[in-house]
Structures are given as structure tokens and as C-alpha cells.
Amino acid sequence: MQKNFRRLDGMTLPYPLFFPDATRGEVRQLSFEDVKKVGLPGILVNTFHLLRLVGTEKTELAGGIRSHLGWDKAMISDSGGFQIMSIAKKGGDNSTVTDKGVTFTIDGVKHHFSPEDSIKYQMAMRTDLMVVLDDFTPPDATYEEALMTVNRTTLWAKRCKATYLAECKRLNIPRDRRPYLIGVVQGAYFDDLRIQSIRELTEIGFDGYGYGGWVMRDGKFDIATAKLMADNLPKDSVLYGLGIGKPDDIVKCVELGYQIFDCVLPTRDARHGRLYVYKAKEIEKIDVYQDSFYEYYNPRQAQHLEENAPVSTACDCELCMTVTRAELAKRWRERDERVLRLATIHNLRFYAILMEKLGSGN
């Protein structure tokens, strides 16, 4: 198992790593300085949205999306596939998914997005890690539908790998400065299809492999599929928990060997008044391996209007160091948008501490 993540500039970061979603090139409510202060190593950007918003020409002129955005830490990119599939499946007769790629309509304009398009733009962005375009398997897929997504994902993965190698050659990128390329394992809840996907993707060969498809099963995290993948993928490859973000699930996945995670949960929950709080008096006493090691805190509840303590004494973020529960509750009721920034900082600091604890074995 690899111990460190390598950036394009040669710098390394110890696993595990959590990347907050900066889908359109920014983490909602936060400046880049805010993101750096919470202690997370980088951000995740979305290929589809940045291709639309920035475009290849501006990205290449800037020398990559990091320079264009003004971000100087680690950056990983997803393929844009999930967003495009969502648009395509809502588009009815105006959208199609075929072996060639995805055709969809936005604002009355028809677009086509192929595996080659995804990789070429990710290479233009110069992110540290890229993900191949995959055919996302919906949670209610039949066996036949899941098999179709596995087959198409393999086909697209081959084309992504070929495009990646061609771009590396064209740009004369040495092996030790190439971005990670991640294949995505599909197959829904069918073990034999997951094994088929693993076999076909490992034959193509990738730097790492991601948990593809829906991660929930019967209302709970599908730990059985996560374990099946970890047990059958190459031990020297990077394991990426795509979209896995609940703290309990991250702990379980790290124990299985997963190293990279991204999710909208901490930032989205913060905006909706759901803050994560460790069940400990101080950071040094946090034990992420105990059952129920954290709880949710809702600043909108009236009971907090009389509490002069910080949200958490086991946190050193700006919110916990400068604002009391009573003040936060009051400002939340006043719909003061500045508290959304503080809540987002708090939740991301919670995840940064979680990664630190998991990396050190507590």
C-alpha cells in the first residue's frame, strides 16, 4: 500500500486525504485562505463545470486551472461524468448515452462529451489526480443494466487510458511528473459484475481505482462492496472512495485500505445547520475508533441561545475559538450569512482532524 500522495511538483502528502468539493473552482462560502487554514491538503474540481465556465483555451494559457483560479495546493479532478449523466437522464429524448459518449442539451444547445474530451481537459487543467469517464450505475439498475454500464465503463476506460498516454507523450511529461489516473469500478450491488469490472480495469492498468456507483444500500453505507473491491484490487494501487464522506464510513474504509475521499457532505451540511462535533473535551483526547465518536450540533435550536460555551472544545477552528453557542444561535436566527462561512470552516476542520487522527492511528 502506498503511504504518500505525490503532487505534480514532486511534493508528497501522507494518506489518508480528504478533498472538499470545489465543483466550480471554489468551496462555497470560503476563500482559498479559509480552506488552507482548516488544514486540508487540497480541493476537488469538476471537469464538466470548469470546461463550460473556463474552457480549454483560458486554462492552457494560464498554465493550468490552479494558476487560473489562484490556488497553489493539491488539486484533484473528477471526470464530470456524474453531472453529465444526471443532465442526460433528465433530458429525455434530447439526451443519449452511447458507447461514443454522452449527448445532452443545456439551454437549448446540444453538446457531446466523450472519454477523450474528459481526459484532454483534465490534462489541460494539470490536476494531480484525474478520473476516467465512467458510465454511472444507478442504484435501481437491473442486472442487465448494470452489466451494460460495466461494459461501457471498460470501453471508455480503454479510450481514456489511450488518450492519457498520448497527451503525456505530446506534452513530454516524464513518468514521475504525470498525474494519477484513476479507473472507476462499476457493477452496482452485483458481486460478479464488480469482479468483472475489477478484472477488466486492472488489465488496462491504472494508478488507482475508485468506488463507482451508489455507495448506499438499504439506507446504509455498502461496506460489503467496499471490502470486495479492497480485497480484489492490486495492493500497490491507490484506493479512492469516490463520494464517500460520512465520518464513520471513512474510518471503515481507511481500515480496509482506502486512501482518498471527497464528498459534499461537510460543506452542504454546514449550510443547513448541521455541524459535526467530536465527543471529546480536547483534540488530543479524540478517539475516532470508538463507536459514535461524534455527534451533530444544530445551532438553530432555541436551547443554545443561553449557552456561552464554544460549539466544541475539541476543535481549534475560527468558529470555536471566537464565537459562543449563544452568539451563533442568535446570528443563525437573524440569517446572518457570515455564520455559513464559520460553520463551513468548522465542518472542514472536523474532517482535517479526522484525517490527522486516521493517519497517526489516533
TrEMBL record:
It comes from the Bacteria. The keyword Transcription regulation does not apply. Pfam families: TGT (PF01702). InterPro entries: ArchSynthase1/Queuine_TRR, TGT-like_sf, tRNA_ribo_trans-like. Transmembrane segments: none annotated. Keywords: tRNA processing. One of its GO terms (cellular component) is cytoplasm. Residues 12-357 form the tRNA-guanine(15) transglycosylase-like domain. This is tRNA-guanine(15) transglycosylase-like domain-containing protein.
